[in-house]
Structure to design on (406 residues):
C-alpha cells in the first residue's frame, strides 16, 4: 500500500490525493503540520532532506518527493500520462512550467494570505502579483484553443494545474476575467472520481 | 534538424546544448538577447508564450519549452534517461527539485550578480542566499553517498544540476565547503563529449 505524507491545505499534496483516488488506490495517510515545523524534524528529513510535503512512500518503502514527479510515477502506464512521445514532452513542459512560473506566484500568495497573516507579507504579495497574472493569462489563452492542456483529454497536466488554480482566489487572484479557465475548472470537476481539496482520507 | 533558441549565458540553455552535443546531434542555433527584450517580441512569444529561452524546435517544426522537459524529450530511449521506473521517478524528482529549490536561488543570484548591476539587487540577493546554501548542502550530502544523482551513472539529472552549480560562484556561492560537489563536477567534466558553457555552436 502507498503511504502519503501530506499537509491538508497543500495544493501540491492535493495533486497526489486526487490522482491516487482517480487511480483507485487505497493508501495510508499521514499529515504533518508544516506551520508548526513538522516537516523539519529529524524523522521527516530522513524521508525528504528538502523538508517538504508531499512525500510518497512506495509499498517497498522507498520515498519519492516533488509532487509532479510523484504524478509522473503514479500515472506511468495509465490514461493520465500520454504514451505518445510528443504528448509526453508537452505534459512535462506544463508540469515544469507549473512549478517555475505558476506555483511560486499563485500558491505562494495563497499560502501567505490564507495560512499566514497577510499583513506580514504585503510587499512580497505585491512582488508576486505580476507573475501570477501572467501565468493565468497563458493558461486562459491556451484554453481558448483546447479543452485540456495536452492531448485533448484530462491528464496529469490538468491535475497539476488545477490544484492551485482553482483556489487562486485565496491568493487574491480572481478568475472572473479568465472565462476559459473557469470552463476548464468545470471540466476537471466533472472527471470520474474527482475529489475536492477538502476530501481527505482517514489518517 | 533540431533548432535551439537560446541565450549564451543561460545555464538552462547550456543544459540543452550539452545534451544535444553528447547525443551527437548537429543543430541550428539562434541566440536571443533576453537582456534587450528579445524573448518578448511577437515572433518569440509565438514559439513560447512564456517569453523564455531555451526553446527547442523539432525537425517537424513543433516548439518545446522548459529546459528540463527538453532534456527528458531528447534523452528518452538513450543512456541519459534510465529505463527503470524507480530510477526515472528519481530523475524527475531531481529535475523538479532543481527548478523549484535550486535554480530560483543559485541561478537567479548569478543572473543579478553576473549579468545585471548587483547593487540594484542587494536585498533580493540576501533573500535568496539561504535557499541556495540549503540546496548546495542537500546536493553535497547526496553526493557523499553516490557518485551521480541517480542510478550510479551520468544522466540528465546530472546535466540539469551541473548547469548552474558549476557557475554558482558567479552568484556568490563558493563551493569550497562542498567537497563532494567539487568531486562530482570533475566527474561530469570527464564525461564523453563534454562541452563548457562557453562552447557555442555557430549561429
Amino acid at each position: 500500500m502507498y503511504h502519503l505524507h501530506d499537509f491538508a491545505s497543500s495544493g501540491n499534496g492535493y495533486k497526489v490525493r486526487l490522482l491516487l483516488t482517480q487511480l483507485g488506490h487505497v493508501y495510508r495517510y499521514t499529515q504533518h503540520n508544516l506551520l508548526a515545523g513538522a516537516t523539519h524534524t529529524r524523522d521527516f528529513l530522513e524521508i525528504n532532506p528538502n523538508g517538504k510535503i508531499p512525500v510518497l512512500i512506495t509499498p517497498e518503502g522507498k520515498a519519492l518527493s516533488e509532487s509532479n514527479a510523484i504524478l509522473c510515477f503514479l500515472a506511468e502506464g495509465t490514461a493520465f500520462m500520454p504514451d505518445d512521445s510528443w504528448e509526453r514532452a508537452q505534459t512535462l513542459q506544463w508540469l515544469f512550467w507549473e512549478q517555475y512560473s505558476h506555483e511560486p506566484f499563485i500558491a505562494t500568495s495563497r499560502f501567505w494570505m490564507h495560512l499566514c497573516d497577510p499583513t506580514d507579507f504585503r510587499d512580497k504579495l505585491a512582488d508576486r502579483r505580476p507573475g501570477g497574472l501572467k501565468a493565468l493569462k497563458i493558461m486562459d489563452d491556451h484554453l481558448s484553443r483546447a479543452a485540456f492542456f495536452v492531448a485533448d483529454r484530462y491528464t496529469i497536466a490538468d491535475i497539476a494545474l488545477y490544484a492551485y488554480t482553482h483556489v487562486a482566489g485565496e491568493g487574491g487572484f480572481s478568475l472572473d476575467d479568465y472565462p476559459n479557465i473557469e470552463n476548464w475548472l468545470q471540466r476537471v470537476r466533472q472527471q470520474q472520481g474527482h475529489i475536492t481539496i477538502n476530501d481527505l482520507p482517514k489518517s
Notes: The helical segments of chain B are 11-22, 42-47, 67-75, 85-115, 122-143, 156-165, 179-189. The interface with chain A takes residues 49-50, 58, 62, 64-70, 72-73, 76, 85-86, 88-90, 92-93, 95-97, 99-101, 103-104, 134, 138, 141-142 of chain B (CB under 8 Å). The mean pLDDT of chain B is 97. The domain at 85-189 of chain B is CATH 1.20.1050.10 (Glutathione S-transferase Yfyf (Class Pi); Chain A, domain 2).
